[in-house]
Amino acid sequence: MTRFPKALVRLVFIPVLFCVWQSFPLSSRAANIAAESEYRAIAEALSGFIRAEIQQKEIPALSIALIDDQRVVWAEGFGRARTNLGATADTMYRVGSVSKLFTDIAVMRLVERGVLDLDAPVTTYVPTFQPKRGFGTELRPMTLRQLMGHRAGLVRETPVGSYFDPNEPSLAATIASLNETELVYAPEARTKYSNAGIALVGYVLELAEKRAFAECVQDLLKPLGMERSAFVRTAGIEAELADGLMWTVHGRTFKAPAFELGISPAACMYSSVNELGKFMSAVFAREKGGVLKRETWEEMLKVQFAAPEQKQGFGLGFSIGEIEGERTAGHNGAMYGFATQFTGMVDAKLGVVVIASKDFANTVTGRIATKALQAMLAQRKGTKMPDFRTTEPLDRATARELAGNYRAGQRGFELRASGTNLFMLWNNGGYQQTVRRLGEELITDSALSYGTVLKREGKSLVVGNETFERVDADVDVMGRKEQNLIGEYGWDHNTLYILEREGELWALIEWFEFSPLTKLSDDVYAFPKYGLYHDEKIIFRRDEFGYAREVVAAGVTFTNRNYAYLRKVGPRKDSMVEVKPVRPIEELRPEALKASPPVETNKFRAPDLVELNTNDFRFDVRYAREDNFLGSKFYDEPRVFLQRPTAEALKRAQAKLKERDLGFAIFDGYRPWYVTKIFWDATPEAHRFLVADPAKGSRHNRGAAVDLTLCDLKTGEPMPMPSGYDEPSDRAYPDYPGGDSARRYYRDLLRTTMESEGFTVYPEEWWHFDFNDWREYPILNTPFEKLKN
Fold first, then answer.
1. CA 734: distance to chain centroid?
2. pLDDT, tens digit, for every residue of 360-392?
3. Is 766 helix (H, G, I), strand (E, B) or coil?
4. Which of 30, 220, 305, 671 could make an SS bond with 700 (beta carbons 3.0 to 4.6 A apart)?
5. Cα–Cα distance between 653 and 63 in angstroms, integer?
6. How far apart, in Å, do the first and last CA atoms of the chain sit?
């Protein structure tokens, strides 16, 4: 079946329970600030760059503010915050980890008053906090300084109330769950970024002030002039809040979830670029006092636990670095559906805030912010402006030519062609990158990453100072114990994938980070010593038959989304949705035969349907049997028809496979319109995303679309694929990253072979291919029995 985009995630907003106060009214005016005269050229250049980036990266909305000391010198919104609401500089967003700065500043106000001590054991304030240590007894006590500087050794996430947890527990319950965890490192031993740590800092604030954390921080926001910002969603915020866009590496998009996190002090602030611009000015005005004393600001802006001459690292909350030799301080934020960059040159007093309404688009917001600061500094110094060029996609032929596996000793990467996209993934994990052109240069550029340059030298590729040679890919088969762990775990809004690459288990966590896992025992693995969850464990909990019921990854429990199905059919059987027809098929058939297809006024080619035969192809026509999604027979015979050019291209494609002893097994080709109408009328409303609307017709009705898979020509057996035919799941997407390498290999081989002869894969179904001229044929309704052999 060819279907409409799936709505697999149902999102429900649960009201915040822990604190409610007055809703600050938000202005309905378009709150953009025109660029001051000296910044007009910069604003114009940045505007062009931003428009190109949000179009290329499919970002719905983006807002930016430039700050020169105590002035916002330009602020503007681009795109649409919601369908009926354009983005402005007053558009509200969830700013993620930028929240940490306000939590830490609120605590530092109590430090100034002598209520809290940065270097006292945190158990002085939270006596019940007792995580497992595992390092013996001779440890430094954990302190607020360590927590705020990410040197406490805590896990990244709390077991309860984490980034993943939609249950909105209290801050107290969230912190209590840390007693179930074990320290990853001894305090001060190594930097370990921790949302859990800043949640604990916020809990100390809550206990010290004897009121809800969000109320405490609101008292900080008011003197900063940030009266629209808050750590809870008010009616005023809701009125101007952008819709966040979620996405996956395989191409599914959905609306961001709206729940609040138990780790609220680390991530849950709502704000705008205009409001954060006021905060930037407060950081620049630290010598004038304000919310903190100057010496307190300077302590926060100093790298903590620094080695001699170290200029980059975490201060107290702030991330400290350099751009063009200027000291910078700020933070980024990644919150469901949003990406934020807040960076200021604290001595030059130039700053920028960029927020986008697309999940994990921090590479984009970070690049825009850096270019803005470089441009502002260049103007002040009279030097050269940064390069505002944007990249272009590769052509399909170049992507296919470069695709393959490359190695230089133990290091290597895979380049995988997907239409005009060329995806790059290193063998030590990280984010999947996209290779594009910048002039004559090949460079990675996507919402996830930018800047890896690939130089072609014959059949080799040079990255940095290393030359990578193309090698043959291995299609590995894992042992049964490991196979039983492969799958999808967790929630619709954040799914953990356990997959196989090069014979080893990997995790794909938080939608985007690929992590090779080190086996410690049959059920216990370790994340690598880098990445989001470095040196944390991943523990599988199996049933008595060896199937994984759930996995505890970095202290968070993810349930197996397919456990019931695995127990029923085993891990290697294809799955298929089963839909009960709302009415009997034989009742619907005569109605559909009497109905008429939609009227089309375009000029079309004359149809020339020809029948495929079993001498050329193997058939597996599910709609001529009852083993299809509706459990009913729709065709009297297992016959397949295609428009003549489509059939000829299919034969050429199969000829390319024969040297591998592979061929095609055909599921479906031309489908009379009345069958499409039966599908629609028989399918319950909740499942109609599975089928095409007969009012518009199906691509199959035109005769230039084919559903098929690969099979072994010697045995006739189908080759393994990531999903079953007509399976309405993420596994059906042509770029689905999970499963095992054999299934991905055969799926990609099917695709590249078909594309080489002018076919295009359907975005949600690896088995469905449209020939390049499919739009040139009309919707047809001729039954099989009336077609010539």
1. 16
2. 999 999 999 999 999 999 999 999 999 999 999
3. strand
4. 671
5. 47
6. 24
How many whole angstroms separate alpha carbon 673 and alpha carbon 623? Answer: 14
At residue 508, φ and ψ (nearest 5 deg) are -115, 110
Distances (CA, A) of 100 to 103, 147, 714: 5, 11, 62
**Total residues belonging to the chain:** 789
Using CA atoms, how far apart are residues 419 and 435, in angstroms rounded to an integer? 12
Pair 372, 66: CB distance under 8 Å: yes
Contact assessment for residue 479 and residue 486, using Cβ atoms and an 8 Å cutoff:
no
Helix H or strand E encompassing 414: strand 411-418
Tokens of 172: 């107290």
Residue 274 in tokens: 């205009």
SS (H, E, C) 135-161: CCCCCCCCEHHHHHCCCCCCCCCCCCC
**Dihedral angle of Cα 106, 109, 113, 117, to the nearest 10 degrees:** 70
C-beta neighbour count of 527 within 10 angstroms: 25
Q: Six-digit token pair at 194?
A: 């921790």
Cβ proximity of 130 and 301 under 8 Å: no
DSSP for residue 107:
H
CB 708 within 8 A of CB 666: yes
Identify which of 493, 489, 101, 62 has the alpha carbon closest to the alpha carbon of residue 259: 493
CB atoms within 10 A of CB 268: 27
How far apart are alpha carbons 246 and 93 in whole angstroms?
14
Nearest to 92 by CA among 229, 226, 259: 229
What pLDDT does 20 receive?
29
Provide φ and ψ at 479, rounded to 5°.
Answer: -70, 160
Q: Under DSSP, is residue 256 helix (H, G, I), strand (E, B) or coil?
A: coil
Strands 618-619 and 662-668: parallel
Other Cβ atoms within 10 Å of 87 Cβ, number: 28
Cβ atoms 666, 618 nearer than 8 A: yes
The SS3 call for residue 184 is coil
Rg from Cα positions in the chain: 29
